[in-house]
Structures are given as structure tokens and as C-alpha cells.
Amino acid sequence: MSITFGRSTALDLTGLTGRYRSGDLTPAALVAGLIERIGARGDDHVWIHRRPDADLMARAKELEKVGPEGLPLYGVPFAIKDNMDVAGLPTTAGCPAYAYVPDETAPVVARLLDAGAILVGKTNLDQFATGLVGVRTPYGVPGNSFDPSYIPGGSSAGSAVAVAAGLVSFSLGTDTAGSGRVPAAFNNVVGLKPTRGLLSCRGVVPACRSLDCVSIFALTGADAAAVLGVAGAYDPGDAFSRAAPAGYSLTPIGVPTGFQFGVPKPEQLEFFGNRDAAALFDKAVERLARLGGRKTVIDFKPFQDTARLLYDGPWVDERRAAVGDFIAANEAATHPVTRKIILEGKSYTAVDAYRAYYRLKELKRQTEPVWDDIDVLVTPTAGTIYSIAEVEADPIRLNANLGAYTNYMNLLDLAAVAVPAGLLSNGLPFGVTFAAPAYGEPQLLAIGDAAHRAAGLPMGATGLPLP
Fold first, then answer.
1. Which domains does the chain have, with CATH numbers?
2. Does 155 qualify as catalytic in the annotation?
3. What is the reported pLDDT for 196?
4. Is 81 assigned a catalytic role?
5. Choosing from 179, 200, 215, 241, which is the catalytic residue?
6. What is the pLDDT of residues 448-458, one digit of tens each?
């Protein structure tokens, strides 16, 4: 039997596992094919640090000696955002002057390696994970996988493009304000923002430590669930880690019959002039009804008011707590927009912080009754998409527009999954996001995966059909 890895080889977990089991693919053959596939793209600015080819092949050979037994991610290639630690590899957080070489691997990454996955490299990002655009980087902009003149979304730009382009099966990003969801929407892949604390953030450079979470980019909802099942674990060394409740299970449950989904009032939806996106959202809602969902219109204002707290409140100063001293001492070495956001914003007092905290608690109380009437909230992932030129001309306002449907999630302790939902008339992807209270991942992934499949889209930018 021939062992092949060609241009049409899909990297979804179902396909890879099946080929490994049948013997017509080996980790070494996969690595050889990936090296060729990555090389063919040239300098695409996806990677900040890629593992040497010899190291990748050595890892593949090591796995072949051990065999797949007991390794749920045997031979599965993945990437991580370069604000996560791997022993012996530099961590830059998108800033060369900040780089350091850690002695320990972040636990969330170590769990994936222990499960047999192959780390291909560390990916490009908006510097210090500050941005939803993917262009605030000194390492070059990883262009959108459908049109490189458009933004890839950020801050986890390289991680999303790597999955969409078929360079890895899945990747890790981080998500404080939407960085695990906006890049997924702009590259036609699945973006899972788990419950805060479900994945360890130890060994991850913080943005807003009280809100940060590690996110997962994948080709399918089932793949995202499989990765979450391996990576998720309580970490006593992470002060923000939380254990999942008793009975929490990612075993596929299927789409619940007659699920209730909420959508904002029509006048509360904002597409920033993008009529194509508005039409695609309407079609996504119609597909949910055909899947058996029942629509409820909700008041989205408390969610919108919460979103504004993130950057128009003291949480922006939490970024200063993370890297402000470094930026102040190295201004010339940092991106001007990142520096402006972190250092030049309003300096909030402790009194401001408490008042914002009280306001957040009030808003959360206002949103709680919504969940009595619906199982999931459905919104666009982003109301529109911009070209790189547009964002560079107006970097802060357009970035803020992209957070309209994402900035409230971690403040309200929600889980979310972003899934592809269609293509705009210019060929660029559009996505929708499903959200639910903490630990709602099983239901979110089931409904999100069904909606993704109903949209009839290929995997990422590969042109290959869903398995």
C-alpha cells in the first residue's frame, strides 16, 4: 500500500486518524508533506518560530516507534500562538525585544504533546495580544487566507491562518476580547473560546489576566471538542484555573430537539454598512430554524453595555499591569498602536475599578434572565471585515467595530464557539457565534457543528469538503 500526502490531503482529525489506522499514512509521511506544503507558501508571515524540519521528522519517527495506542492526538500537527511557552523555544508575544527562552512548557501545550500531537511552530500575533486585526506585528502581516489584502483578524492571526491554509490540523490562540473568534470568522474555520479557566493559562503571557483564556482553532466542531477534551484540565499552579463541574462531558450529544436560540433585536444588529453580512446572518438564522431551533428575540443592550466596559473602563489598565513597565522602558521597540492603547489611555483609579466592577455585576444580573428563555445566543462573529489598508488608516476605531459581538463574553463569563456561515460577494468568509453561560461547550459545539455543516462550506481555505 502506498503512503501518500498530497495537495488534497485533509488535516481534519477524522481523516488523519482513519488514514493512520488504515496504514496509508504515517507521521513521517505527513511531516514530509507538510514541510513541502509550508515551503510552497514562501514567507507568508504566519510563523514567528517554526520547528526545524529535522526536529519535526525526529518527532514523527519517535511517534512511529511508540505507536498510536493511548495517544488520542497521535501524529496530529498543531501550532501555538507565540505568547505561549515551550521549553527551549523563544517566546516573543509579537515583540522581539521582549523575547525570552523559557525552561518549562505551558501545561496546556504539554498535554497536547503528551497526547501524541506534533508541534509545527509558533505563530504570529497582534503584539502583546492587543488587537482584533492581526496587523499590529513587526513580523509582517499574515494575510487573510482568502485574500491577502484583507486582515486575517487578531490577535491570534497566524494561528487561524495556519489552520485555514491546511498547514496544521488545529492551533491554540488566546481570547480576551475576541481573539479566538474574529480570526476564525475571517478565515472560515471554527474558533472555540472555552469557559475562562477551563484551559490553563500558566506559561501564557497575559493580556488581561483576569479575563484571558486559551482558545482553539479547528477545521470542525468535532475537532475542537477533541482538542478541548485533551487540553482541558484543572491546573493548581494557575490561580485562575477552574475545574469543570461534575458530569461535564464533551461526548457528542447531537443537536437538542427544539433548542431555543436568541438573536438581538433587528435595530440592535450592526453590520457597519456591510449588506452582504446582514443577509448572510439572516440566512444563518433561517438554517437554525430548519435544524429545529426556535427563535427568540432578546434585548441585546446589556450585552452591548458590557462590551463597552472592556476598553472604556479600567480593564484596559490590566494590560498595563501585564506589560506596561516593559513598554514604558522600550517604547521604540513596541508597535505604536499597541503602545498608544496600553500607555496613553486614561489612567484609572482604584475607585474607578470598583465602580466598573459594580456596574459589571449590575449588567450581568440584567443578562441572567435571558438564559431562562434561550439555550444559546446567536450573533454575527463580526459585523464586517476590512482591508489591511483600511485598518492601517483608522486602526483604533475599526478595531473597536470588530469587537461589537465579542468584547462582553469574558466579562460575563460566557463560553462561545464561532463557526463559518457563508461567503460575502467578494469571496471573503462570514461567521456566526454561539454563546452560552460557562461550561456550555458541549451544547455549543453540537449546535455550532450542525450549523457549520448546514452552511455547506469547505474546510478553511483548502477547498476540501467537511468530513
1. 1-243+253-312+356-467 (3.90.1300.10)
2. yes
3. 98
4. yes
5. 179
6. 999 999 999 99
